[in-house]
């Protein structure tokens, strides 16, 4: 296990980057704690896999250093970093049996036969492949092969870190839930440092102690699922986390009020003069329809998703989503929306601004 330090780290795929826009991974300075489980979350192309490949040694950064504990591994080969990595698509030895695939990392390091057999049986039980141990990998389905890859990544107990690059892409939905739960259980049992790359917020929020949200090559927030939901530090976090995501509305801020199209929204805190693109952000869970209070809206449609209703509305060209209870009655004259002031965030140029009491 290892504490992973990213020191002034950045990467460009161009030989001579001329500006920040030329960097696929913009400058990072972060310490990821020993034994924690992190998820790297973001849309495709945001830099998640680039960062993971730099940590694993498959890619050399354009600048900066990577430290495992206090050891500089920036230029160390992947084999010297003592990590296990599972990729998006299965990487298995087709001519070997499932048993031999799982045992390979342990045998390669000279582990005793008794320990190898014990560990292989444990992992096979975890991934649900006990009945297939003596079958050749050739001819197995893609999701079965990916389970072998996952098992081979988890079989060693002495690794510095376990790295997962969207490992459940080819796994069927039911098995995804089981394997994610087992990965979490493995982390709780052995305390490996784990980094899990995904674009799926459900995977990230259910797996990780802390989620690292990336956008446009930059880490925009590291936090617990609760922190990402309640206080998104960037409008992208608010938009990307949640279903539907946070409502973002252009506004003018004066003290503890936000003025939008001639109406105003009460704020729980006061703010000084703000420059740039100023907006407020509020989760649909903290919005409610009313006949008399709040911003005037035009309801376009109501979606009943079983547990609750999602009200899709329009406010002078700005989309607003409201979550109502499954049993809530929504009448034709409920054409205003109000927000819980304690859960309204203020943003300037997409970054959250802290107010004063």
UniProtKB/TrEMBL annotation:
Cited Gene3D superfamilies: 2.40.50.100, Nucleic acid-binding proteins, P-loop containing nucleotide triphosphate hydrolases
GO function terms (MF aspect): ABC-type ferric iron transporter activity; ATP binding; ATP hydrolysis activity
Keyword annotations from UniProtKB, A to Z: ATP-binding, Cell membrane, Membrane, Nucleotide-binding, Transport
The keyword Manganese belongs to this UniProt entry's keyword annotation: no
Highest taxon listed in the record's lineage: Bacteria
GO CC term (a single one): ATP-binding cassette (ABC) transporter complex, substrate-binding subunit-containing
Domain ABC transporter: 4-241
Pfam families attached to this UniProt entry: ABC_tran, OB_MalK
Signal peptide (residue range): none
Entries under InterPro entries matching the protein: AAA+_ATPase, ABC_transporter-like_ATP-bd, ABC_transpr_FbpC, ABC_transpr_MalK/UgpC-like, Mo/tungstate-bd_C_term_dom, NA-bd_OB-fold, OB_MalK-like, P-loop_NTPase
CDD domains the record matches: ABC_Carb_Solutes_like
Family membership: Belongs to the ABC transporter superfamily.
Name this polypeptide is given: ATP-binding cassette domain-containing protein
Source organism per UniProt: Pseudooceanicola pacificus
